[in-house]
Amino acid sequence: ANGASEVVAETSAPGGAQLRMSVANGHLFRFAIRAADGAAEWAPLGGIVDSEAGSDLPPWDRGVRAALFAIGPSGASARFASFRMEQPARQP
């Protein structure tokens, strides 16, 4: 809240990795990681993040803004090969 950043999980991925973000009920976020080759199962990365918990934003400004970025010590870098966002089909 109040524009502060919070680290919810950390891991290293020296051989590269695939990252996944899943959303439930429009505000409950889960993150997972697996090896870059996709051979392993998804492993949870951190716990559930509730974007409504302690939010000081008005309801009309709580839209999700997805982005990829990396932070680290001076000289650290990250390279993202692709980004895909999918919305599951609605159930009748």
Automatic annotation (TrEMBL):
Top-level taxonomic group: Bacteria
Name of the protein in its database record: Xylosidase
Organism: Sorangium cellulosum
